[in-house]
Write a structure and sequence with these properties.
0% strand; elongated
Length: 129
């Protein structure tokens, strides 16, 4: 159950954060398929929501057709996405006031890093990259 909460509550925040970090998740192998969101993460968390989910362009997150390169595009998009989540969680470890949030950050780091490592291994095995 905890994993579901993490994915449903933090995924939009992570996507928006990565998009505002300047990379726009452009690691996809197809130059015409870029994952982007249109909303920046709030810089003043005390007065603004982290993202405006109602205005997010979810269609811009499409990875394209279910073709021979889909799996590679998916991994090339998800690896930096997960790396962004790990970076945010590491930041939370040093800055969060609540121990529950620091515990969640540790869980995010462990699970996301394991998934990064798995996808990198698959990418190397399947595509030599």
């Amino acid at each position: 159950m905890k994993q579901v909460v993490v994915k449903t509550k933090f995924l939009p925040l992570v996507i928006a954060t990565i998009a505002t970090m300047g990379n726009g998740l452009t690691a996809c192998s197809n130059p015409h398929t870029q994952l982007q969101t249109t909303n920046p993460v709030a810089t003043d968390a005390g007065s603004k929501p982290a993202t405006d989910h109602a205005n997010m362009d979810h269609n811009a997150m499409d990875l394209g057709a279910a073709d021979a390169d889909f799996d590679l595009r998916f991994m090339n998009a998800m690896i930096p996405h997960h790396e962004g989540a790990v970076a945010m969680a590491k930041d939370a470890l040093t800055k969060a006031q609540h121990p529950e949030l620091r515990q969640l950050a540790n869980e995010i780091i462990a699970s996301q890093q394991a998934e990064i490592d798995q996808m990198k291994q698959w990418r190397k095995t399947w595509y030599g990259k």
